[in-house]
Structure formats: structure tokens, C-alpha cells
Amino acid sequence: MNAPSAARVWLEAVRPKTLPASMIPVMVGTSLAAAHGTADYGKAAICLAFALLVQIGTNLANDYFDFVKGADTADRVGPRRLVAAGLVAPRTMLAATCLVLAIAFGVGLLLVREGGWILLPVGIVSIGCAIAYTGGPFPLGYHGLGDLFVFLFFGLVAVDVTFYVQAGYVTPDVTACAAAIGLLAANILVPNNYRDAETDARAGKRTLVVRFGRRFAVWQYGLSNLVALLCPPALLLHGYRWPVLLPLLLAPAAAGLTRRLAASREPGEQIALLVATARHLALYGILLSVGAVLGR
User: Fold this and answer.
1) Using an 8 Å Cβ cutoff, are 204 and 182 in contact?
2) For 7-51, what is each residue's pLDDT tens digit?
3) If pLDDT is split at 50, 70 and 90, which confidence band does 292 have?
4) In the chain, what are the domains?
5) C-alpha of 156 from chain center
6) I want to staple 191 with a disulfide (CB 3.0 to 4.6 A). Which of 76, 273, 282, 285 is the partner?
7) CA 296 to each of CA 31, 161, 249: distance values in angstroms, whole numbers, following the listed order
8) No. of H helices and E strands in the chain?
């Protein structure tokens, strides 16, 4: 078998199937800004670039630190990790991580120029947590805080900051949507951690699945889907009209995904579910964005 090209290796390292977690919050925040009559698509593009770079940096850091800490090995089940597979040297992956996050910091400075100095600490913490997710003296993912990290930074922070940069303020309806997006983004972690529970436990990676078991993971996943579906009806209380209910069309799909997680036994099923969960987030975000604009 021929070795994969360098371009293909680095594309794999970026994990493109997970990128809706950073793209969808920016789209939702921008659509809400449009609904409020304050959309600025140039500023939205800067937000998107920052969000993508932070997520890519997080993915690269995860590849490096999980190998160093022993969570990823050549025998890992699931999508391969490039350092563990011997396709990228550890030092090279670390250097790539630093480069991507340095570029993210530069893009973040553009956001500070557009939205004010209040965004500087937000950007610094976001970049710091990209490393701290699996690296540093207290790796968040190894202490069951990975889900909280994703909820906060790919939900509350990403949606609210995208809206704030364009509008100059944040409203309760925006934060409600941010929470819904954060819950669905965190759900992307669940099938992955569900699959890796045994290997994570051996490596000392105490994810929520390792701490509380697979039954807890199914409840977490299902309740997150349910709460996200409660957001559109809540928006009716904030002056939106019926089109904002479009995400409710996904209720059967949300229930089906939860049943699939509960019934899954093989790693292949959980890998497919991870992809389906990312797709669900994307569809929810699209329907919510369209509904917010049409229903305002």
C-alpha cells in the first residue's frame, strides 16, 4: 500500500467531519444578528476564521497530547490519529499546533479591533483551553471537563461573541440559541468517548463516560437533544414567529440517534454515530438560522 500524501495526512489531522462544531455557531450567531438587523458579514468572516483555527488547533493538540499521555496508540480503535500511527512526528504535530494557534491569535486581534478590548481575554482563554483540552498540568478532557469546554466555547462563547461583534450587545434569545448549539456540539464527543471508554480508563483519561458509565452517556446525549429542541418554542416568547420552530422537524432524528447510541455495541457503529451527530448539529443550525431570520 502506498503511503498517503502529506496533504492527505494533514487534512486527516484537521478532522474535517468535526468542523461543523465551529462553523455552525458562527452561522447561527450571524443569522440572529440578521434577525436583529445588525448583521455584518465581514465581521462574521473573521469570527468564522477564528473559530475554525481554534478548533483545528484543538484537534492537532489532541492528536499530540493523547499520544504523549498514552490514550492513543497504534492499536487504537476508531479514526486513526496521525502521531500514534507514525505518520507525523510528535515534534512536528506540536509545531503545527503552535503555528495554527498563533495564527488564531492574530485573527483574534482583528476581532478585538472590531468588538473592543473585552474580547481579548475571551480570545486568550479560548486559545489556552485549546491546549488545555488534552495538554498541560490539568488537561480538561482527562478530568471529565471536555464536554463542558465544548458547550462553553463552541456554544455560548462562539454564538454570543459572533452576535456581539456584529451587534454590540447580547440578548437572552441569542444566549438561549447558544446553549442549544453548545449542547449539540458537546454531543459529538459522546459517541467518541463511548467507544473509547476502556482505553481511556487505562490511560487515566476520566471522561464522563469513564466516570459515570455508558448509561449516563445515553441520558446525557438524549437530554441534550431534548433541551436543544425546547429552544425554538422558547423563542416564541421573545417575539419570534412560527418559522423559528423549523428545528422541531428534527425531533424524530434526535430520538433515533439516541436509540442508536443506546443500542450500539461495535466501534464502527459509534464512529458512524459521531458523523451522524455532527450532521444533526449542522441541520439543526441551518434550520434554526433560517427560522430565526424568517420568524423575526
Assistant:
1) no
2) 898 999 898 888 888 999 999 999 999 999 999 999 999 999 999
3) very high
4) 20-295 (1.10.600)
5) 11
6) 273
7) 11, 20, 19
8) 14, 0
Say what the pLDDT of residue 3 is.
66
Run of H or E including 12: helix 6-14
How is residue 69 written as a grid cell? 499521555
Rounded to two decimals, the pTM is 0.91
Q: Residue 174: what pLDDT?
A: 97
Q: How confident is the model at residue 197 (pLDDT cuts 50, 70, 90)?
A: confident
Please report which residue ranges of 36-118 form alpha helices under DSSP H: 41-68, 90-115
Cα distance between residue 105 and residue 113, in whole Å? 13
- Location of C-alpha cell 450587545: 169
Measured in whole angstroms, the distance separating CA 222 from the mean position of its chain's CA atoms is: 17
Residue 72 pLDDT more than 90?
no
- Measured CA to CA in angstroms, residue 204 lies from 64, 137, 144 at distances of 16, 14, 11
CA 166/CA 32 separation, integer angstroms: 10
CA pair distance 287, 296, nearest whole angstrom:
14
Sequence length of the chain is 296
What's the grid cell of residue 146? 471536555
CA gap 23, 95 in Å, rounded: 25
